[in-house]
Every structure is written in C-alpha cells, then in structure tokens.
C-alpha cells in the first residue's frame, strides 16, 4: 500500500477524560499515530495511575459519586498533559516521515533528523 490513514485526536482533544462515573483511558483518551510506538506504554501508565488514585477511596465506608468524580478529576489532571504530548509529538513525527510539513523536502534531512531525534 502506498497510502494509509493516520488518525489521531490532535485537532480535537477530549475536553475531559471523564464525565460523571464514566472514564476513558488509553487510545480512547489519547488516540495517536503510531510514530512513537508509545500508545500501549502510555496506556500502561494510565492503568498504573488509576488504581493508585482509586486506592484513596478505601478509607471510605461508602463511596459517593462525588468521591469517584474527585478521583477521575485527579486522573485527568495528572495524565492529560503527558498524554496530549504523545498525540501532538507523534503527529508531528508522522508529518515529518510523510513529507507533510514545510521544510521537509529532500535536502532538509539534517533539520528533519534533528527534529525526530529530539522526540
């Protein structure tokens, strides 16, 4: 194949990773192009953070919806910036590899190489 779709949430990030008692993690929250190879790794980070936050609820005899909202808000706050970095950086790498950015033409390999190495 010489053409394939690259889909991500760079232009339309989720306004929040949660709504009420519903939380999205992994590719549902930060779908990115595969040019970093980090999507699954970031999912594992999310899976590691969430139980640590949920553990805070062990002290309660009854868990109220507001308690769960507070945990989800903490998750959103702790993960959003890093997850969005992955989406945006992977998209830039995809554009570099696919010659879709200005200044990415044969002869600009040094600049492209430096940009990719910085990622």
Summarize the structure in words:
- The protein is mainly alpha-helical and 119 residues long.
- It has one domain (18-118).
- It is built from four helices and two strands; from the N terminus they run ββαααα.
- Strands 1-2 form a two-stranded antiparallel sheet.
- Strand 1 (18-19) and strand 2 (22-23) form a beta hairpin.
- The protein is elongated and about 65 Å long.
- The model has no long low-confidence stretch (mean pLDDT 85).
Offer a few descriptive terms.
single chain; 119 residues; mainly alpha; 4 helices; 2 strands
Number of helices: 4
Using the CA coordinates, give the radius of gyration.
18 Å
What percent of the residues sit in helical stretches (DSSP H or I)? Answer: 40-55%
Oligomer: single chain
Shape: elongated
Side by side, the strands of the main sheet go 1-2
Structural class: mainly alpha
Rounded to the nearest angstrom, the distance between the terminal CA atoms is 27 Å
What kind of sheet is the major sheet? 2 strands, antiparallel
Are there runs of 5+ residues with pLDDT below 50, and where?
none
Strand percent estimate = under 5%
How many β-strand runs? 2
The averaged pLDDT comes out at 85
Order of helices and strands: EEHHHH
The number of domains is 1
């Amino acid at each position: 194949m010489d053409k394939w779709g690259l889909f991500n949430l760079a232009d339309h990030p989720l306004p929040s990773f949660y709504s009420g008692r519903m939380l999205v993690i992994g590719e549902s929250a930060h779908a990115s192009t595969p040019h970093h190879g980090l999507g699954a790794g970031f999912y594992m980070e999310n899976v590691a953070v969430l139980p640590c936050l949920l553990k805070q609820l062990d002290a309660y005899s009854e868990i109220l919806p507001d308690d769960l909202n507070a945990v989800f808000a903490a998750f959103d706050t702790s993960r959003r910036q890093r997850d969005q970095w992955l989406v945006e950086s992977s998209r830039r790498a995809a554009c570099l590899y696919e010659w879709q950015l200005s200044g990415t033409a044969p002869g600009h390999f040094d600049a492209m190489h430096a940009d990719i190495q910085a990622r």
